[in-house]
Amino acid sequence: MSYDPNNIFGKILRGEIPCHKVYEDADAIVFMDVMPQSPGHALVLPKAPSRNLLDADPAVLAKIIPLVQKVAVAAKTAFAADGISIAQFNEPAGGQTVFHLHFHVIPRYEGQPLKTHARNMEEGPVLAANAEKLKAALGA
After folding, report:
1. Residue 58 belongs to what domain range?
2. Residues annotated as part of the active site
3. Which tens digits make up the pLDDT trace of 40-59?
4. Nearest-angstrom CA–CA distance, 61 and 57
């Protein structure tokens, strides 16, 4: 299947839909997941169009993975997490629901299960506050 630029993340990248942005540079954007599985759940996206990992340009991956790592380290600090889960889904059978390559960075806590993915929208003020915490930890 081919990349559809009208996916929700494509619209966010073009500024057509707002997001709680944490970081942006020429190659990538980081923003809060509006349906977080844990406080501080962020998404890291390359700006280059690709449906998922399976069709991504290796040069794009080489740039995005260090940013995923940087966001993970910052999220662990900002949210006093015991650990971090990194998730990346490919195609519907693999759990992908938005068809623009993205990585989930999810703070984790001992004994606390994750909320179900893509179920409940978080309140805007909570997302804004979490974005500021993550920005501060990133030094952004």
Report:
1. 8-138
2. 102
3. 999 999 999 999 999 999 99
4. 7
Angle (deg, nearest 10), helices 58-78 and 124-138: 100
Encoded amino acid at 93, one letter: A
Report the domain count for the chain. Answer: 1
Q: Which of 94, 117, 98 is nearest to 106 (CA)?
A: 117
Q: Assess if residue 80 is contained within a domain.
A: yes
Tokens of 66: 């260090």
pLDDT of 71-96, one tens digit each? 999 999 999 999 999 999 999 999 99
- The predicted-structure confidence for 94-140, as pLDDT tens digits, reads as follows 999 999 999 999 999 999 999 988 778 999 999 999 999 999 999 96
pTM comes to 0.96
- Residue located via tokens 């390559």: 101
Q: Do 86 and 103 touch, CB atoms closer than 8 A?
A: yes
